[in-house]
Amino acid sequence: MTALLLMLSGCVEDDGYNAAPNVPPRPPTINPRPADCPAVGPKITTGIVEATMGYRAVVVTLANCSAQPLIINGYPVVAILDADRNTMPVPVTPGVVKVATDRGPARIRLAQGGTVQAAVTWFNSDDMISGRKVAGDFLSLAPGQGDPVVVLPIATDINLRTKVSVTAWSLRSPLSS
Q: What are the tens digits of pLDDT across the range 24-53?
């Protein structure tokens, strides 16, 4: 009977299994940079080169890898590089695009994991200089003026006479209307 009274009164000897630890709960773990993100800055990638009737387009995607919001505004800074990664004298014009939709520059606030896209477009033209084909093999890309540059390999037929255009960053694909 004494054991029953002790159990009912809450004075049972603690065996260690039922005791609540006096430790505050841990906050949830947040991974601020997914494993495939660069050490610094956003992740920039390119898709495949789309082709139609001599025109070419490649979608560039920027992902915010930081836990902090990222403000994107305007057009990516794009340069065409040759096989030796030297900048080719090919002008890149913002907004004058034939095979993609340029929605114009807008201030976009990206949360962690958020993405924006832009398109780099050009018209295929053959150009021979000194008997050898000159072509762009890399794209140099930066989110905006003064931002860190990323160099990505890309199979292009961009040459010294090619007119290259770029769309503004957008939350929607520049290859959809």
A: 655 544 445 556 888 878 999 999 999 888
Burial level of 64, CB count in 10 A (0-12/13-18/19+)? buried
In the beta sheet, which residues pair with residue 164? 92, 122
DSSP of the chain, one letter per residue? -HHHHHHHTT-PPP-SSSPPPS-PPPPPP--SS-TTS-SSS-EEEE-PPEEETTEEEEEEEEE--SSS-EEEES--EEEEE-TT-PBPS--EEES--SSS------EEEEPTT-EEEEEEEEE----EETTEE----EEEEESSTTSPPEEEE------TT--EEEPPPBSS-TT--
pTM of the model: 0.76
Which residues neighbour 84 within 8 Å (Cβ) at sequence distance 6 or greater? none
> β-strand 107-110 against 115-123: which pairing, if any?
unpaired
CB 45 within 8 A of CB 51: no
| Rounded distance between C-alpha atoms, residue 76 and residue 149, angstroms | 10
